[in-house]
Amino acid sequence: MTTALRVLDPAIWDDWYGKLLLAFGGVPEAPEEIALWRELTECERSIGMWDGEDLVGTAGLFSFRMTVPGGASVAAAGVTMVSVQPTHRRRGVLRSMMRRQLDDIRAAGEPLAVLTASEPDIYGRFGYGIATQNAYAEIDTDRVRLSVPDGTDAVTLREVAPADGAAACEAVYARLVPTRPGMLERLPGWERLPVLDPPGEREGASPLRCVLAESDGEVTGYARFAVKADWDLAGPKGMVLLRDLDALDPASCAALWRFLFEIDLTSVIRTEGRPVDDPWQHLVSDIRRCQVRLKDRLHVRLVEVGAALEARAYTAPLDVVLEVTDPFCPWNEGRWRLTGDAKGASCARTSDAPDLRLGVRELGAAYLGGVSLDALAGAGRVREAREGALEAASAAFLSTRAPWLPHGF
Ligand SMILES: CC(=O)SCCNC(=O)CCNC(=O)[C@H](O)C(C)(C)COP(=O)(O)OP(=O)(O)OC[C@H]1O[C@@H](n2cnc3c(N)ncnc32)[C@H](O)[C@@H]1OP(=O)(O)O
C-alpha cells in the first residue's frame, strides 16, 4: 500500500463525505443534513488518505472555541469526520491521520483538541481522555411529580416555529456558553444544527417544536422537542422527545420542564444528552423512574500542556509539579510547575521534584473539571509523589458546574 495524505480539495467534497458515510455503514443522510455539513466543513483543515487513486481515509478539524473552568474561551480544534475504509482498516491509516492532525493543531497554536468518539476505545492511545459525560433520561411522567421553585408561575410560555424562535434561542445559548466548561461558541452556520429536522429522520414523531420561556418580556429559556404519538388499548402513551432545553434562571427552567411534563396524551419524556448536574434531577419526586444513564461524551487532548493548563482557572489555590508522559506528542513530556487559583494560572517547565505523575490522557480527562484526579489515582492512573499533593490538586482541578458538550460535531 502506497499512501499519501492530502488536504481536501473542496471540489471532491461529495466523494470525501460519501466515503465517510460508507465507513459508518453506508446509510444515506438527508440532503439538508449533507448540505449543512458541506457548508460547515473547513476544507483547508480536512485531509484525505489516498492509496493510489483510491480515497481510503478522511478526517477533519473545526476551529472551535471552548469554555474552560473559570469561564475563559480557549481555541480547541474539533476532530471530526474520521473514517477509514473497511478495505484498509488496521493498517495504521488512522494513526497517520492522528499524527498529521496533532502536528497541524500544534502549528496553528491551538492548545486543545477535542472530539466525540464513535467508540470510546479508539482515541486514548493518542492522548485523548474522556472529560465529560452526558446524562440520558427516560422519565415516567405518569408517576414522577415535579416540585417547582417560587417564581415559576410568573414565567410565560409561547410556542413558535423553531425557525422563528431560533434567534432568541441563540441569544440564550450565547449567554450560557461562558457559564459551563465544555460549551462551544457558535461558529457561523452552526446555529442551523439545533433546528435541523429532516422529515425522513423523524421516525414517526412530529416535526420539531419550540417553546420559549419569557419573563418581563424577555426570552429566558427555550425547549425544542418533538412528540411521538402512541396508543394502546389502555389509551394514549405518547412520548416527548426532548432535543434541548436551556434556561437563564431556575424559574424559567422549571416552567419549561413543567410544560413538558404536562403535554397531553404523553407519559414519557426521553431526553438527549443532558449535563450530569442538570437541575431537573432535583425537581423530580422519583429519580429512579427517570432511568438516568451516563455515556462518555467529550474527549479532550492537551496539545500544548503548558498553554492549556495556563488557560483555565482553578477552584482552590494550587502549586504543584506535574510529571507528564506523552509518547504521541513528546514535546509535552517532562515536569511542569502549575500555580493557580480562581483568577488564573501559570505553568512552566521545571526541574523540581515531581508531586504527581500522570499521562497526558489523564490530564485531558481532568482538564474540564468533571473527572477528579483522585478518582484517576484510585485507578492507578495518577501517582502521588508528595504526600498531600493529590488531594490539593484534585480539589483545585474540579469545576463547580459539571462540564458538558451540548451537541455533537
Ligand atoms: C472523531 C470521530 O470522527 S469518531 C469516528 C471514528 N470512525 C468510525 O468509527 C468509522 C468506522 N471505523 C473506522 O473508520 C476505522 O475502523 C477507524 C477510523 C476507527 C480506525 O482506523 P484504522 O486505520 O483501522 O486504525 P489504525 O490501523 O490506524 O489503528 C491505530 C490503533 O487504533 C486501534 N483501533 C483502531 N480502531 C479501533 C476501534 N474501533 N476500537 C479499538 N481500537 C481501535 C488499532 O488496533 C491500533 O492500535 P495499536 O496502535 O495499539 O496497534
UniProtKB/TrEMBL annotation:
<dbReference type="InterPro" id="IPR041380">
    <property type="entry name" value="Acetyltransf_17"/>
</dbReference>
<dbReference type="InterPro" id="IPR016181">
    <property type="entry name" value="Acyl_CoA_acyltransferase"/>
</dbReference>
<keyword id="KW-0808">Transferase</keyword>
<dbReference type="Pfam" id="PF13527">
    <property type="entry name" value="Acetyltransf_9"/>
</dbReference>
<dbReference type="Pfam" id="PF17668">
    <property type="entry name" value="Acetyltransf_17"/>
</dbReference>
<feature type="domain" description="N-acetyltransferase">
    <location>
        <begin position="3"/>
        <end position="151"/>
    </location>
</feature>
<dbReference type="InterPro" id="IPR036527">
    <property type="entry name" value="SCP2_sterol-bd_dom_sf"/>
</dbReference>
<feature type="active site" description="Proton donor">
    <location>
        <position position="123"/>
    </location>
</feature>
<dbReference type="InterPro" id="IPR051554">
    <property type="entry name" value="Acetyltransferase_Eis"/>
</dbReference>
<dbReference type="InterPro" id="IPR025559">
    <property type="entry name" value="Eis_dom"/>
</dbReference>
<feature type="binding site">
    <location>
        <begin position="118"/>
        <end position="119"/>
    </location>
    <ligand>
        <name>acetyl-CoA</name>
    </ligand>
</feature>
<dbReference type="InterPro" id="IPR022902">
    <property type="entry name" value="NAcTrfase_Eis"/>
</dbReference>
<comment type="subunit">
    <text>Homohexamer; trimer of dimers.</text>
</comment>
<feature type="binding site">
    <location>
        <begin position="82"/>
        <end position="84"/>
    </location>
    <ligand>
        <name>acetyl-CoA</name>
    </ligand>
</feature>
<dbReference type="Pfam" id="PF13530">
    <property type="entry name" value="SCP2_2"/>
</dbReference>
<dbReference type="InterPro" id="IPR000182">
    <property type="entry name" value="GNAT_dom"/>
</dbReference>
<keyword id="KW-0012">Acyltransferase</keyword>
<protein>
    <submittedName>
        <fullName>GNAT family N-acetyltransferase</fullName>
    </submittedName>
</protein>
<feature type="active site" description="Proton acceptor; via carboxylate">
    <location>
        <position position="409"/>
    </location>
</feature>
<feature type="binding site">
    <location>
        <begin position="90"/>
        <end position="95"/>
    </location>
    <ligand>
        <name>acetyl-CoA</name>
    </ligand>
</feature>
<comment type="similarity">
    <text>Belongs to the acetyltransferase Eis family.</text>
</comment>
